[in-house]
Design brief:
Number of strands: 11
Shape: globular
Order of helices and strands: EHEEEHEHEEEHHEHEE
Radius of gyration: 17 Å
Helix content: 10-25%
Distance between the termini: 37 Å
Largest sheet: 7 strands, mixed
Structural class: alpha/beta
Number of helices: 6
Length: 227
């Protein structure tokens, strides 16, 4: 967290030569390039840890995909590269404005309340609002801004969001719950509480933990739940 953070770009398949012309360099994560001295060009800035989350969904062309907490839209855009039919939600309409350039449906919805859909989504992403402690390197104000009580409140909100999202998952579907937090209360604690109350309807089939200093980029947690 004391080192200057590196900046990464999302480079869709077929655009690699353009990225290289900007001085960007490929990383170990497919489609993720380390930004060069010429800036991002037309590419989206997206941390390598963030880009590692979407592949856990195992997206396939034509699938119905729901992004529950979509703004600012980086993961939605990454998911659309797979040819899915996407619906992107966020609590605040103004935060969805940047997603208008994407080929997907936009819905203003509060994830802590029952979602306004009939279910049947093959893939769902819950990139939950969190304390952001995995991003301290680029957001040092978190050290003073986030209090212990905030983590308790966030945990409760995250549990409600995850439960409501799972209600929308189709049989044999896959949901990925993710945060850029390092706090177990926001990560394993949320997943374990939701699964304990689901009566065996869903299974935890995979987890990822990225730690700054050990892994490139910001800290991230992600869990794969299947129905």
């Amino acid at each position: 967290f004391l080192a200057e953070p590196e900046h990464y770009l999302r480079v869709p398949l077929g655009s690699e030569e353009e990225a290289l012309s900007l001085g960007a360099r490929p990383s170990a994560e497919p489609g993720c390039f380390l930004m060069g001295s010429r800036g991002p060009g037309r590419f989206r800035r997206q941390d390598i840890g963030s880009q590692a989350v979407v592949p856990m969904l195992d997206l396939q062309p034509g699938q119905r995909f729901l992004d529950v907490c979509a703004a600012p839209g980086n993961k939605t855009a990454q998911a659309l590269e797979s040819g899915v039919r996407a619906v992107a939600c966020d609590l605040h309409e103004n935060r969805l404005r940047d997603l208008r350039v994407l080929q997907c449906s936009l819905v203003v919805a509060d994830g802590t309340q029952p979602l306004p859909f009939c279910g049947g989504f093959d893939r769902i992403l819950v990139d939950a609002p969190c304390s952001g402690t995995g991003t301290l390197g680029r957001n040092p104000d978190i050290r003073w801004r986030v209090q212990a009580a905030d983590v308790v409140d966030l945990h409760q909100r995250q549990v409600r969001i995850l439960r409501n999202a799972l209600e929308q998952l189709a049989p044999s579907g896959r949901l990925v719950y993710a945060t850029c937090s390092l706090e177990s209360e926001e990560n394993e604690g949320v997943v374990n509480e939701v699964l304990a109350g689901a009566g065996g309807q869903f299974r935890l089939t995979g987890q990822m933990q990225r730690l700054p200093g050990r892994d490139a980029g910001d800290g991230f947690y992600a869990a794969v739940l299947t129905s």
